[in-house]
Write a structure and sequence with these properties.
868 residues; alpha/beta; Nucleotidyltransferase, domain 5; MutS, DNA mismatch repair protein, Chain A, domain 3; 28 helices; 23 strands; MutS; ATP binding
Amino acid sequence: METSSSLFNFFENLSSSDIEPDISNEETTDFSFHGDKKTIISSENIERCETDLSRTVPQFPNEFSDNNSCSVEEHIEVVMAVYWKRGKLGAAYYTCSDSQVHVLNDIVDVHPDFNNLKTLVSQVKPSQVLTCSGMADTFVQALSSAINGKMDSFNETSFEKEDEQLKKIFFMSVRKRDLNYDSCKRYILGMRFGFEPDTTNEDDHLLFVNSHIDLSQESMVVSFGMLVKYLEKYLPQINLNHEPLRIMFINHISICNLVSIDEATYKALQIFNPRVHPSAFKRNAAGSTKEGLSLFGVFNRCKSSAGIRRLREMFLNPSKDEKQINERLDAVEFCCKPQHQHIVQNLMDCIKKVESITGILANIYRTRASISNWRSLYSSLYNAILIGDICQKHSSHSKLLEKMANSITPNIHEVTHYMNQVIDFEESSLKNQFTVRSGVDRKLDLLRETYAQIPEVLVKVAELELEDLPSFVQQCSIIYITELGYLLSIPVWKGDGSDAADYTLPNFEVKFVVNNFVHYKTPRCSELDEVLGDSVASISNIESQIMITLIQFIHVRISDIVKVVKLVAELDCVISFSIIASENNYVRPKLTKERKIEIVQGRHPLQELCIDNFVPNYTFLGGDGHFMKIITGPNASGKSVYLKQVALIAYLAHIGSFVPAQNAEISILDHIHSRIQTVESVSTRMSAFLLDLKQMSHALYNTTPNSMVVVDEFGKGTTEIDGLSLLAASLIHFVERKDKCPFVLVSTHFHSLPTLLPESRLIKLQYMDYLTENDEIIYLHKIKDGVTGSSLTLLAARAAGLSEEAIKRAIEIQSSKGPLTCNPQLQITKHMMKEINYMKKIFKIVLNNEDNSADSAEYDGDDDSDQG
């Protein structure tokens, strides 16, 4: 029998044996490995392994470290601050050449990839990067590797203070209360910007800041505050001109491969609709929210928790990478075909057994993993291998399937195989602790054999001891107590057992008396200590050493494991897309770089689920034609649904999903802006109309020729002339861009709006068709070219159930040319007359300064006098 010098040799040389996976209800599979020897581990050659696998992040002095500050001779062009918390990345950077700040609103960036962070660093190419010293080690590693162009160095970098990778990173070692969201928000609100009007008062300044910075974005606000605090201290050294910080403009970053969508647009389009728990005690607890009727809720057919997380990431980060989108669309198309349904079902059966391994790996690295954690990791990898085998057979149909098949590397096979070879899952479940299989370690097996024989040995030793004991002792037993070893236990034969000295016996050492039993250390017990020793502790120590070595074996292969689970999650999302597409008759969109959107028989993905007969509509924007649609029509005719429908179809195309239409050709977009829904809050100190203006301001400042702007009834929060003027001015601004005009969809009840706009081929006027019959309105929900002259408000009010009396009075007011008067047919009731008389008495008392008490004018419900 060969013995290895270390457990790593065991893992490298161990071949696949006859031991099969014992996960319940799992099918077994054959694994192929190199090597033809079965090596038994000898614990005599095992050295204790270190359990601390954490990285050491260098600590710097308080505030900004002078040791790391830039030298005076080194000119810095771009200074960037990044902050990551709870999975959301925020950033801000300052360009010295034009004194402008660029901010990145919070976006989801998932550990351990941090793809958005890497994309951001690659796009900005900063000269210096700031981050907080309290950031997670993995985040710092990813940031360091991104700065130095070593994107694949995750989990392999050991940081030291003199590490070259840290030369461009500033670690701010600041007290938490000095660098948190609230303090940074107050700091930003207290700043004065170079492009801010000098005449602004405090309220105007607040509105100005809110119109340029979304202060609800926590990570971005902290990054902005961190950046400004640093620049105020070191900018004179950077610029060599000793001028104070002056920010001339604030721009918003659009990461090159992502479509920028703000939170208001997500809410307005009902992409997410979280519902909080009704109980105040559970309202802020983790997992207390549920998804209401939303696009995410409809599309969430994922079978795994990792898939659900990945689906949310995809919804929060729509891509404009045409290659990535088409990879997803190819996979969706494969899964939608009827002849592939049995393949999809097999994939789903395996996917639902793959769990999110982030928390599991964290527990394993801390050596705190339960046996269920180990079982989950093994089951996830085992089923990932099965998924890879299925994808391998069909990899020619989709790049995503090919990636999934290629992700099953020898490392994945080895980790899965060795976990099964080492861990006895059945025995571990019974003992509820990590248990090593028989045949792994020679000494461990001998200890277990010895431990199994201990009860029989103890019985025989007890019989021998009983023969040597005095005749008044009728029974005895041998027990084992940790630290004390094996002891002879005899029931007390006299007294109450309070004094151990009363129970001395020749050649026996009294240890203690408890529960009416006297415990002795005898020569035979001492011999048992030498021969048997602490078998349980020895077994536990060896199993712990084997577990730690297995953890290290997994750790060096962690990147492959994470990649596999991520691809399984992506596949789960794609299958979810295909299920929705098949159920609702979606089609594959065609992505184009040409500035053109054409949707044939488009439908609203949520509205069509709520009604029986949804009326589809045709949409065309761009090309050589118009880029702006102005839609009028009666109230409740479907204008808002149509606007959201076009935006949602474009959005779905950018996450790689099929779309609800007969045919669709979608231009690749940079941004989707909206002014649809006003989310009011007392904390903003802004009225509904000011919030509308803020949303419109973002659209005006941040749109590109490849952006989409959706505006629903802008200007209704103020007077008609003011709202009309602002809307017309905003649309004229877009039209004046000519060929760089974004895609603009507008609905309005300002029927005079077209007369205020210049004649341009970029503008197309349309309305929602309807019929009127017997003073009733019939909505056709079909879009047509032209304009409507009236919103038919009164007919819509009647259809909504408003009383006929109110409608008649509204008609009178609407047709009145002079000043408004009271309705002559208004009947004064007897009760109303009594109240009038009571008030007349009160007025007389006040006007005449009488000394009568208020009781003299007491209301008398039966007084019918003085009807005049």
